[in-house]
Input
Amino acid sequence: MPQLSKIWAHMKNAPLGGLAILFMLVMGALFSEFIAPHSPVDQDIIQALRPPFWFEGGTWDHFLGTDELGRDILSRIIFGARISLVVGFMAVAISGFIGTCLGLISGYFGGRMDSVIMRLVDIQLSMPYILIALALIGALGPSLRNIIIVIGITSWVDYARVVRGEVLSIKENEFVDLARIAGCSTYRILLKHIFPSVVNSLIVLGTLMLGRIIIFEAALSFLGLGVQPPTPSWGIMLADGRQYLTYAWWLATFPGFAIMLVVLGTNLVGDWLRDMLDPRQRAAVRGKR
Amino acid sequence: MQRYIIKRFFQSLIVILGISVIVFIITHLTGDPTDLLLPPEAGPEEKELLRNQLGLDRPIYVQYLGFLKNIAHGDFGQSFRHQTSAFSLIIGALPATIELTIAAMILSIVIALPVGIISAIRPRSNYDRLGMTFALLGQSIPVYWAGLMLILLFAVTLGWLPSTGRGGIKHLILPAITLGLFSTAAIARFTRSSMLDVLDTDYVRTARIKGLTEYIVVLKHAFKNASIPVLTMTSLQFGRMLSGAVITETIFSWPGVGRMAVQAIYNRDFPVVQTAVFVTSVIFVGINFLVDIIYTYLDPRIKYK
Amino acid sequence: MNGNEKVLDVRNLKTHFFTNLGVVKAVDGVSFYLRKGQALGIVGESGSGKSVTSLSILQLVPKPAGRIVEGEIWYGEEDLVKKSQKEMRQYRGKKLFMISQDPMTSLNPVFKIGNQIAEAIRRRQNLTGDDLTEKIIEMLKLVHIREPETRINSYPHQFSGGMKQRAMISMALACQPEILIADEPTTALDVTIQAQILKLMMEIRQHYNTSIILITHDLGVIAKFCDYVLVMYAGKIVERADVKTLFKGNRHPYTRGLINSLPHLGKKQQRLASIKGQPPDLLNLPKGCPFEPRCDYSVERCSCDYPPIEPVDKEHFISCWRWREI
Amino acid sequence: MNGEAILEIKDLKKYFTIGKQGILSRKPRIVKALDGITFSLNKGKTFGLVGESGCGKSTAGRSILRLHKITDGEIIFQGQNIDAFTGMEKMQYCRDVQAVFQDPYASLNPRMRVGEIIEEPMLVHGISRSRGRRERVAELLEVVGLSADHISRFPHEFSGGQRQRIGIARALSLNPKLVILDEPVSALDVSIRAQILNLLMDLQQEFGLTYLFISHDLSVVEHISDVVSVMYLGKILEMATCEMIFNHPLHPYTQALLSAIPVPDPEFSRQAIILEGDVADLLGLEKGCLFRNRCFNATDACSEREPELVEVEPNHQVACLKIT
Output
């Protein structure tokens, strides 16, 4: 626990924009029905391909315009946040769990276990993860559950690498030896002495990964192997909009902008958390005497 | 040093073996290929016959060993759709992908290194703020959206550059920018932080105490050290690019391995998919091995590990 | 003493660090001078500001957090504080050189030792090719590195700690600085190696009449090596005197406590005299004398006002309200 | 060295292999961190182990603490070989033998409160109830000169000396018989060092503790130890009572080591014996005395035969051919 004064010192540097974006994302996903002006699936051919309100032919009613079927873009973006967030959080949880366990084992026990896990990491890193995910989803079928699982098992590597690195340096600390001398079991050492020191890095990494997974999920949908229509998803909206790029630019522009904004938010918050929670960064800020 | 390279070489072989296992598993997960190969009205006997022909009734490890033997000979089977060897299809598409990735990589490095280095020597300056803001944006923009927006601006609105297909240098510009965007941002940020770490070390201070010019301090003493982690990062980015090429090639209709693989997935043409995965992975392993050799030149400590 | 010429005159130096948590006054109003050929010792505990003082002289205070906020550092007719980084290049490596604390990290790991020494040589002499190689070998010989012909092609990780520090000293020799600053040059080394390095530094001093600032926490090293000593505590000089006066006629309670708390070899005591309390928190220094909470002699006044530096005699200065009574 | 032995070390060896033996690595390098050391600790006394970096003194401590497997030899605690311990006996051994390490920052888990840190050994050993443990923690804090109010603070709120006190309190929480002190004051400032040394000596008196005091600092070792042994490259070169070692050193290495210490007295002048070379210069020292290439007394015989540790006078053992 950092002291209050330290927390305050970092709160002053908080990326308000990033936090606001993430807040909007969560709110949008939780209360889509109340916030969105229209239903995301209602079609209205008469209103089709309306531009945003500030262009000629745009209306206030369809703030960001409508798509080729007359569905309201803004509403679809708000509902699309749901998919992104659900996939993002679940996949971060799954990959974080797998990666953390492997990283802890690899770093703490070393030796043969370490070699095996590190080779697994090499293998995973060498393979084109988008193709693997596409192939797996192509094989298993594009359900939400499968998408989460596939993204989860293709994104564990970063956690394993970071956790392993942290464990290797934490292990060098004398308090770990002293815990063994006191008679603590390996399980207790890993859980009480090593894991808590890794949590900060996990929070930072998880935040940054959330953004990357949201991009990843939309990429799958964009390529047609993610969530299936008519579920409103940012990736699907982009894919649809691509065909209308030449005369209805707003179809592809706004959902992509939404993705960018959210990822920007996670990156900003992630960087801030790193400055606050990562001791090495803190030392750099403090300067040496 | 030789021992280190030999060790890395064997590790690379193990990794390739691992990749083959995973490719094999994925192929099996994709279900019974007889459904795809036979017309829907085929009866169970015909299926059984084909399964026997394809060796699908043999024990799994025998099948794997057969698979391994085949891929060692470059035989990944016939494309269901094109009725030619899947391997030759992929090899045919490979030059396009390599052209695109290398162009993107060069673009990334040429932009990212100077930006990262200058940001590091002038931390918190306006230059640093500007560079890092762009880097942050670059890391936040999804590749597919960046591609679409570039097409919208340069192809649709301004009409300066072609939006699809492969041809001269003009065709290469937009796809290369799209594919390189994320890596440029990532390498720039990483270069900055590595340089900041190194500039804070005692040996850089020693170089300053000796009264060396700032140019030598930064480019000789600091950068050579910082380049070691940056190289690691860059080689990882290469892997990302090979993967990201799938999307970029699809957007720009670039006739490379990625686009072919996506088409193959749509068509459930699995021999082509597995060849694409395997070949891209092996290329990346090869690049990593080259990078390992470069390390031995950059970091004398490696030779004795 | 070798003449009276002042080669360095530091006046009211204040170097502060501006951190997220507040301002650390690492060096806060330090004045002293260094005479030609003198070996000046700066002694103090961690956080006393002794290293920052040396970095300030070289204008190498870690940026952006650290800054010299006040004071002058006169080298001859020039005030180093006013020099730009570019101008400082004319001083670093020619007039001033510093050997830093940790020989393990002060050599660049990816360049050969010979290359790194060559850089120092070329600050003074424009040598190339075989002449340069010969000169490097000569430098390595001067610091008693065995087989210098092969050692110039070694990388730092192939050197032991003592050899690395010798390589650093050979750079100092190549630069022939007027002032050599040695920041804890032997702290990371074993006792027997420390003895070798100190001997080498004494040889240099005698041979080239170099003025040396030796920074250390080890009073034994001070007694052995230095003529004149500054004692620092919490960014200020509490006492400065020639070495004999400091050990035998000290008047500051901190100096005295420090000397008394050392175990003496060959004279086994039952208990050590210790200084009570904890080292000061540099972010929350007390208003008055920073040593007051730990001082056995403190009176009310000590916690309100910082005592000014007063001369005890010509070369002995002290900052304590009660030095006359101690 | 009379008295009741609590711990006996017999011909202890610990070899580390650098570079794993695999299909590809040709020959692994073996580092003999401990190459046959024998000594015993007497109850209630302090045994000092001194030497320069890499001499194996910490390896000895870590072997006794069972932090790694030993290569050969015996460690006998209260008459029992610790290698033959069963699960229960191992736990009992943990209670009897505790340690304090060098780095006051790395020794305390930054994410645990002071109370939890001191309580943990008792918790693991199932000693007393939660309330009883808390009372004991408060009592221990007072014993080491801190206040019971510090119980719910985090380590980063303390200075180095205070942290070392917390570490000592943790070591005492199980009422150990033997405490391994591995450079316990080396990382501390001079003014704090004396406080901690005094505390350690007081605690020894109060609780009848036995100390194994490992340090590179001879003056500190002299201050606290009853018996001292000097190590060099995994071997003991000289072992004697504290007075003898410091007033009448026999081994050339001990003599050099003592003379190399700068004395904090400007009027004290003594010709220091400057040893040539480095511990790292091990070329061709396969047999014979390991110190001979730095020794000012070495003769040809020294490269032929390895000296044994021999008792040259009561309570004084030396391993040097020129003396024995």
